[in-house]
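ok, trying the design again with the full structure, not the truncated one.
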């Protein structure tokens, strides 16, 4: 990423990282000038040979080299680069490189570079190699002087006639500085000639020159940006939850799915398969920081509200509330977990915009110190695969407006310490395949209108009715042991009392009184 640097500085830095050098070929016509990029010395141009002649004047017509001084310098002996990438967090990501030749120096001068600005093995190995070659680009160098303008960076030549035979080899020019003088242009110096001095540096032609690493611009601090995405999309991310953004200073890119590189998002908690995840949505403002100040390694560290993207609720009126509220994707509504901390009005509120699922892998305990209100507007299904115990220390009232059914496979028992009252507005049917037992310690009474039957604990049985119809299809036996069977006696015993003809209406009124009260 180009940040706070000129185009030339940007190209120079990237070229140095990738082991590329460049040089300009000058021509008389501007349209003929060329800028050449290369990554190996084999691409250089040769101009033949030049003789060494220290006694020749600079204005001589014959091109030569009149000064050629070699120097060997102490430079770093090893480069170790290291980096990190979240796509391979367990990768060691460390590479080291030493030069093939080191003259007259120890191998103790190491450079450790972190971050090494690489994210894969090939770049890691290459960058270490390019760096050591860059740091040692002038470890073995020759400074010279010549009168030829042909010695410019990117040119190779063969030196001849030097008294040191080891210098009569091929060289490549890595820098040159030319100065010329035309004294005859001044009045009184018409007889003097034009001179040219070319101060240059060369290295062996078999050595590929690399630039030393260029310092990378650093971002001073965090910046704000707006999350972007393709038209019509509200959430745009990749498999790592990264998003794209548009910075306020970006004058060229549109606010779409190509506005920036993918940027990682810091989360409150991040573990292997667990933690917190909240992907910033398109249009939200985020805070972007940069790892080690590197503009090529942005990371979103926070989000912030602004004038058109306000917080839920209405601040400062809801300043006592803390909320986690989502937004329905391409729709209205939200899920929310809200905490109200106002003294005397403390509240924990939860809203599910549609469905809600809760799973407890072991026990669940619920304690309500006061009241509990539960409203279900649809259906409720409870499945209990074990035992169920229900304890109500006070009163319990069940109101069912529809039908109630109960199925018990094994058995059923009910124990009531006080009284039991049951009202049925229709027909009451009780059937048993085997035995039906109705027992009482004092009295069993059956009554209906003008009829009544009483069974007393003393053994007395009273039956009262307007008429009696008994049909026995087999034998009939009436046995009075030790007593008298009287038919229409003059002094009959006290009959059972019957409720009378209004008994049905009385029962119906009781039913209506209960259900009409519940409907009010």
């Amino acid at each position: 990423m180009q940040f706070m640097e000129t185009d030339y500085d940007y190209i120079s830095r990237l070229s140095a990282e990738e082991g590329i050098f460049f040089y300009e070929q000058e021509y008389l016509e501007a349209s003929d000038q060329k800028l050449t990029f290369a990554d190996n010395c084999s691409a250089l141009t040769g101009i033949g040979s030049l003789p060494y002649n220290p006694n020749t004047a600079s204005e001589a017509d014959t091109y030569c080299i009149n000064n050629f001084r070699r120097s060997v310098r102490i430079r770093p002996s090893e480069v170790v680069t290291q980096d990190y990438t979240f796509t391979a967090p367990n990768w060691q990501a460390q590479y080291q490189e030493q030069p093939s030749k080191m003259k007259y120096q120890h191998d103790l001068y190491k450079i450790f570079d972190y971050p090494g600005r690489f994210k894969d093995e090939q770049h890691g190995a290459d960058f270490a190699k390019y760096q050591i070659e860059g740091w040692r680009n002038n470890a073995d160098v020759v400074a010279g002087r010549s009168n030829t303008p042909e010695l410019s960076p990117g040119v190779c030549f063969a030196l001849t006639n030097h008294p040191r035979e080891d210098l009569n080899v091929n060289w490549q020019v890595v820098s040159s500085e030319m100065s010329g003088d035309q004294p005859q242009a001044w009045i009184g110096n018409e007889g003097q000639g034009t001179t040219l001095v070319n101060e240059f540096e060369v290295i062996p032609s078999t050595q590929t020159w690399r630039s030393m690493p260029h310092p990378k611009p650093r971002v001073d601090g965090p910046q704000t940006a707006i999350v972007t995405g393709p038209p019509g999309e509200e959430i745009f991310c990749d498999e790592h939850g990264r998003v794209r953004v548009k910075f306020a200073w970006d004058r060229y890119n549109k606010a779409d799915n190509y506005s920036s590189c993918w940027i990682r998002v810091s989360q409150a908690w991040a573990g292997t398969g667990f933690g917190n995840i909240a992907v910033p949505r398109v249009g939200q403002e985020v805070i972007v920081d940069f790892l080690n100040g590197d503009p090529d390694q942005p990371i979103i560290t926070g989000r912030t509200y602004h004038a058109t993207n306000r917080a839920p609720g209405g601040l400062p009126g809801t300043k006592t509330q803390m909320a986690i509220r989502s937004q329905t994707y391409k729709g209205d509504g939200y899920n929310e977990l809200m905490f109200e901390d106002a003294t005397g009005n403390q509240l924990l509120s939860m809203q599910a915009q549609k469905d809600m699922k809760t799973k407890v892998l072991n026990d669940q305990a619920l304690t309500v110190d006061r009241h509990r209100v539960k409203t279900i507007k649809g259906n409720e299904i409870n499945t209990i695969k074990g035992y169920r115990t229900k304890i109500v220390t006070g009163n319990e009232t069940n109101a069912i407006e529809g039908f109630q059914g109960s199925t018990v496979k094994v058995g059923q028992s009910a124990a009531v310490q006080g009284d039991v009252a049951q009202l049925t507005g229709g027909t009451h049917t009780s059937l048993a395949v085997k035995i039906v037992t109705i027992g009482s310690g004092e009295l069993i009474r059956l009554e209906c209108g003008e009829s009544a039957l009483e069974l007393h604990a003393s053994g007395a049985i009273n039956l009262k009715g307007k008429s009696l119809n008994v049909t026995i299809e087999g034998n009939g036996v009436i046995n009075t042991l030790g007593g008298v069977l009287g038919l229409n006696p003059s002094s009959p015993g006290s009959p059972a009392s019957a409720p009378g003809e209004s008994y049905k209406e009385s029962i119906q009124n009781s039913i209506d009184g209960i259900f009409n009260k519940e409907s009010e």
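Keeping the full-length input from now on. The chain has a mean pLDDT of 90.
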